[in-house]
Write a structure and sequence with these properties.
Elements: H1 11-22, H2 24-33, E1 56-60, H3 64-75, E2 79-83, E3 96-97, E4 101-103, E5 109-111, E6 119-120, H4 132-140, E7 147-153, E8 162-164, E9 168-175, E10 178-182, E11 188-190, E12 195-198, E13 204-208, E14 215-222, E15 231-233
Parallel strand pairs: 1-2
Antiparallel strand pairs: 3-6, 4-5, 7-14, 8-15, 9-12, 9-14, 10-11, 10-13
């Protein structure tokens, strides 16, 4: 029977609608506002006090939380054992490389036939810049991390001149045509698949050459790993 009563919208459906309508940046902002992507409260390395006196700890699960707990407890002097159901560590964080085989819950088996050096992350593929606790362990364990941003440029949009303190950047044009100007060199226009690399101190400008279509590019930045937000506009004193 038809009814005029409103249909309840789940939180998952709401976030999906925001993402589809306004893009990933708006989705992440909405999740932050709702408390599901809060900034890290990291205040420095964990300090475990007390005397373990030979105590043993059994940790269930070798995901990030379990592995971090094992690392800190072992460094504090505890005897630690980690139990994991799967045949690998990492929990939801894992990579598939050429030659790997994975059987899904439904029974379908996937065979990875990637070329050497290629891989895919079926779980999380990025670490938000403000997850300082996780980034601390990346530094401690020498895990290389690089900042990756997908940038959508409105028709005719041009960035202001800017540079970085340490971060080198690699630009990859995904869609449209984009004009890059590096230092006092002549501008270069790159289309889909075009690559450009720039040193930190070089002042750069980026412009969408189209007055009617959006352009999209990927920017990969780092200096032997992720360095945080160290970009500056020309004339600016503090990093942004």
């Amino acid at each position: 029977m038809p009814t005029d009563e409103p249909t309840a919208t789940s939180r998952r459906d709401l976030l999906k609608l925001i993402g589809l309508t306004a893009g990933s940046a708006a989705l992440y902002q909405a999740m932050t506002s709702l408390g599901y992507a809060a900034e890290s409260g990291y205040k420095g390395p964990i300090k475990l006090e007390g005397d373990p006196k030979g105590a043993s700890v059994l940790i269930l699960g070798a995901g990030l939380a379990g592995m971090v707990a094992a690392l800190e407890l072992r460094q504090a002097g505890y005897k630690v054992k980690v139990l994991e159901f799967n045949n690998r560590a990492g929990g939801r964080n894992w990579s598939l490389r050429g030659g790997d085989t994975y059987t899904e819950l439904g029974g379908a088996t996937q065979h990875c036939r990637f070329d050497a050096g290629l891989y895919v992350n079926p779980g999380p593929w990025r670490i938000p810049h403000h997850h300082q606790h996780l980034l601390h362990y990346c530094r401690e364990l020498d895990v290389k991390a690089f900042g990756v941003n997908a940038v959508v440029m409105p028709p005719g949009y041009a960035s202001g001149p800017h540079y970085h303190e340490r971060q080198e950047e690699l630009y990859l044009v995904h869609r449209g045509e984009i004009e890059f100007t590096f230092g006092d060199k002549d501008a270069v226009v790159l289309g889909p698949g075009g690559l450009a690399r720039v040193d930190p101190a070089t002042v750069r400008r980026v412009r969408n050459t189209s007055d009617s279509e959006e352009a999209v590019y990927l920017c990969v930045g780092g200096a032997g790993g992720y360095v945080g937000r160290d970009g500056r506009t020309v004339g600016e004193e503090a990093p942004r």
